[in-house]
Amino acid sequence: MTTVVQVSALVILAAFPVPAGAQQNLSGPPISATEANSFVSDPANVLESGFGLKDWEPNADPLSPQWSGTPFVTASRGFFGEAVALPPTEIRSRWTHKYLYLLFVCPYHELYLKPNPVNSEETNKLWDWDVAEAFIGSDYLRMSRYKEFQISPQGEYVDLDIDQDEPKSELQAIGWQSGFVVRARIDARKKAWYGEMRIPFASLEAKNPAPGDEFRLGLFRIEGPAPHRMYVSWRATGARTFHVPGAFGSLVLK
User: Of 74, 86, 87, 83, whose CA–CA distance to 38 is shortest?
Assistant: First the structure.
């Protein structure tokens, strides 16, 4: 199953003033002593992105010439660094002069998919279903501001312009366009799904990317229905939400 889609506009005032992804799990009980003690710091906090001379159409294939041999990081922990009952999710990155590419390799136990998927426009509340997510910020002086990109196993997508300090109006939110392209593929035999994002650097406010440039990066995944829903992080956030910018790692252009 593959899907190629072009983003047209941001959705959602429903996501504000609380950032959309923060609604994923904010209603839980206070943190227990066990959870607090299980919090661990991930020392591998950098994803290196290798340079490519030519742009390409997303293929969602880790064995393709664009992705074969590319280093990756893994997301395998819960909010507080605790283990989750999923094999590690691999995330790779590459870049060209115009685009940042991300590839998610997502082993799964059982897919939890939105009925009647729509790939011609953004899907609000996509985070209620299985998704992979990237939060990317380019301004280290305004850590509360970043972009959120989501992709589902069916190729649905949503992107959001997040500013926790200055929530946007409905008109501003809907008017933001990232222009990112996604492709998704499910391999039922391997019990894995693959999702690739091609994100214009212009949407990240990085018009002239160069080797050594660094972005703040959060990488996440959600799988399954409640009450057994799993929230997976590359870098544990220490709170029952992904929206903790201080816990982000770094993406470095090589």
Answer: 83
| DSSP code for 32 | P
Protein fold of 2-253: Immunoglobulin-like (2.60.40)
The Cα–Cα gap between 239 and 208 comes to 35
**Cα 79 to chain centroid, rounded:** 15
Measured distance CA(14)–CA(125) in Å, rounded: 9
Q: What is the pLDDT of residues 71-84, one digit of tens each?
A: 999 999 999 999 99
Cis (ω within 30 of 0) for the bond into 167? no
pLDDT of residue 172: 63
Name which of 27-31, 58-62, 118-122, 188-192 the model is least confident about: 27-31
- Per the CB < 8 A criterion, the answer to whether 195 and 1 are in contact is no
Fill in the amino acid letter for 79. Answer: F
Neighbours of 77 (CB within 10 A): 22
Distance from CA of residue 213 to its chain's centroid? Answer: 19
pLDDT at 198 over 80: yes
pTM comes to 0.84
Q: Which of 163, 195, 203 is nearest to 9 (CA)?
A: 203
Q: Hey, what are 251's tokens?
A: 């993406």
pLDDT digits (tens, 9 = 90+) for 109-120: 999 999 999 999
Looking only at the bridges linking them, the beta strands covering 89-95 and 46-51 are parallel
Nearest to 127 by CA among 150, 106, 110, 107: 150
Residue 106 near residue 128 (C-beta atoms within 8 A): no
